[in-house]
Specification:
The protein has eleven helices and 13 strands. The chain has about 350 residues and is an alpha/beta fold. The chain folds into two domains: about 170 residues, Thiolase/Chalcone synthase (Peroxisomal Thiolase, Chain A, domain 1, 3-Layer(aba) Sandwich); about 150 residues, Peroxisomal Thiolase, Chain A, domain 1 (3-Layer(aba) Sandwich), CATH 3.40.47. The protein has a five-stranded mixed β-sheet, with helices on both faces. It has a four-stranded mixed β-sheet with strand order 8-13-12-11, sandwiched between helices. Strand 4, helix 4 and strand 5 form a beta-alpha-beta unit. The longest helix has 23 residues. The chain is globular, with a radius of gyration of 19 Å. The relative contact order is 0.19. It binds acetyl coenzyme *A. Acetyl coenzyme *A binds next to helix 2, helix 6, helix 8 and strand 12.
């Protein structure tokens, strides 16, 4: 393979200088279910208004999967689109990982179900759970396997059927979330520098801020646990909001620092799509220019691990990102977890 030309951007970790190897994003894809649930629909379900949801969150509508459509189905459809864009077949995939908090089942992993659906027979497959930060955790895992020469082609998917764990009687949370999936094929390619750096972080001391109490080994399903509504997600919104802004800001600044890149050099910032006010606060503190932040949560709500993956696909397909552009992804989620990545597209 011919060596990569020198990148315009420094990378203290010098990953892409590693004997001509880089971790390029060869193709992205996304899939959202057909059914649209609008704020007006929610007004008929819980005590809320379009005005409250729009002003507090920026969300206007979200997608809801059909009863017989599962996380692995959404994931497989997004994966097939990413594979088509990358020009790779299932047979070429060495590893696939699905970031999700809504697996089809506790086990086997959703990744194994997706492996079968997309014909990735040779691939190792596992799920990873970092809530809304899962896609960036996945990118970093892919990068490590590619740069260590263990694998050449890794499929990273973020997929969620959050409608299956949302309490549709709780107005505090049910208006926020949606279903969907996004995927990326990462490859050792000589045509693009790809992922320059990825930052990951976590704070288990704040696990209770955003969690689902039931369904695990601590609280297996019983008639009582179901009656107590323990199998739905719970969130302390205000506290979560505060941590989200600070953690995303820190992660983004650390990623930029590592690459010695200034925010003004970033063509497009793709933040986790949880709340418009969080996105604006992070953008303002980062010194982002108007229009630099990519926003699509008005149409999809918070799709957790799928969020930045869906947004990345949309930014690429609508021409917001061109080859050679620098982009910044930044995420935050339950755990707590956070992350950021700089990509030379
Ligand atoms: N409609 C109308 N009123 C509502 C609704 C609703 N849907 N939801 C809450 N309210 C009410 C509350 O009951 C409260 O009323 P009260 O004052 O009488 O008690 C009032 O509105 C204000 O509630 P707050 O919680 O103060 O609202 P806030 O401005 O904080 O917005 C929100 C809430 C949107 C949840 C915000 O806190 C937020 O976005 N938090 C962060 C979410 C996030 O980033 N999560 C992380 C990722 S998710 C993951 O990892 C799966």
């Amino acid at each position: 393979m011919k060596p990569l030309p020198a990148s315009k951007f420094k990378n203290p970790r010098a990953r892409y200088d590693f004997k001509g190897r880089s971790c390029a994003i060869a193709g992205v894809g996304a899939y959202v279910p057909a059914r649209v649930l609008t704020n007006a629909d929610l007004e008929k379900m819980v005590d809320t208004t379009d005005e409250w949801i729009t002003t507090r969150t920026g969300i206007k509508e979200r997608r809801i999967a059909a009863k017989d459509e599962f996380t692995s189905d959404l994931a497989a459809k997004a994966a097939q689109r990413a594979m088509k864009a990358a020009g790779v077949t299932g047979e070429q995939i060495d590893l696939l990982t699905v970031a999700t908090i809504t697996p089809d089942m506790v086990f086997p992993s959703t990744a194994c179900l997706v492996q079968q659906k997309i014909g990735a027979r040779r691939a190792a497959a596992f799920d990873l759970e970092a809530a809304c930060s899962g896609f960036i955790y996945g990118l970093e895992i892919a990068q490590q396997f590619i740069m260590s020469r263990t694998y050449d082609t890794v499929l990273v998917i973020g997929a969620e059927k959050l409608s299956s764990i949302v309490d549709w009687q709780d107005r505090n949370t049910c208006v926020l979330f949606g279903d969907g999936a996004g995927a990326a094929v990462l490859q050792n390619r000589t045509t693009s520098h790809g992922l320059l750096t990825a930052v990951m972080g976590a704070d288990g001391g704040k696990a209770d801020l955003l969690h689902m109490p039931g369904g695990g080994s601590r609280c297996p399903a019983t008639a009582d646990s179901v009656a107590a509504r323990l199998h739905y997600l719970r969130m302390e919104g205000k506290e979560t909001f505060k941590h989200a802004v600070q953690a995303m800001l820190n992660a983004a600044q650390e990623a930029l620092r590592r690459c010695e890149v200034d925010i003004s050099q970033i063509k497009c910032i793709i933040p986790h799509q949880a709340n418009r006010r969080i996105i604006d606060a992070v953008g303002e503190r980062l010194g982002a220019k108007p229009g630099q932040m990519f926003v699509n949560l008005d149409r999809y709500g918070n799709t957790s691990a799928a969020s930045v993956a869906i947004a990345l696909d949309e930014a690429v397909s609508t021409g917001r990102i061109q080859r050679g552009d620098l982009i910044l992804l930044v995420v935050f989620g339950a755990g707590l977890t956070w992350g950021a990545a700089v990509i030379e597209w």
